[in-house]
Amino acid sequence: MQLTYHVNAPVTAIEMAEVFKSSGIKRPVDDLARIEAMLDASPLVISVRDQDRLVGIARSLTDFCYCCYLSDLAVSKEYQAAGIGSALLDATKKEIGEQCALILLSAPGAMDYYPKVGFQHASNAFIIPRNR
Questions:
Q1: CA separation for the pair 53, 117 (Å, rounded)
Q2: Which is it for the CA torsion 120, 102, 53, 7, positive or negative?
Q3: Which residues are in the N-acetyltransferase domain (predicted)?
Q4: How high is the pLDDT of residue 121?
Q5: Which helix (H) or strand (E) holds 6?
Q6: Residues 62-92, buried b or exposed e (16+ Cβ, 10 A)?
């Protein structure tokens, strides 16, 4: 493996959709226009490549001074359990700084992962879910 991490480097909707599919994260992978809009609206995207292949991504919405919502954390299946997710989180934390809270909504299957990488469970969150 020749992994390189990048901050706000170009990522295509097709590449991101492929990582989402492989990782098992549920996203609108067949709606590339929506994936592209997700990328375009994100002020912070940390990507990791093995040579030229995108293998992981952390996509965040943030003001860089108070809060950061980590919307997507995905690593291709064959690269999981190699520390890439933790490295993406570390890179995200470095970019937002210590004064910024890092917030996420976990997929049910990842609930055990986040406490292991430093997240605290929050019982004071609310959501109005999307319709599609």
A1: 25
A2: negative
A3: 3-132
A4: 86
A5: strand 3-7
A6: beeeeebbbbbbbbbeebbeeebbebbbbbb
Tell me the C-alpha distance between 79 and 58, whole Å: 14
Report the C-alpha gap between 93 and 63 in whole angstroms. Answer: 13
Question: Could you tell me if 42 and 82 are in contact, meaning their C-beta atoms sit under 8 angstroms apart?
Answer: no
Angle separating helix axes 32-40 and 13-23, nearest 10 degrees: 100
Complete domains list, the chain, with CATH: 3-116 (3.40.630.30)
Q: What is the pLDDT of residues 26-80, one digit of tens each?
A: 999 999 999 999 999 999 999 999 999 999 999 999 999 999 999 999 999 999 9
For residue 113, pLDDT over 90 is answered with: no
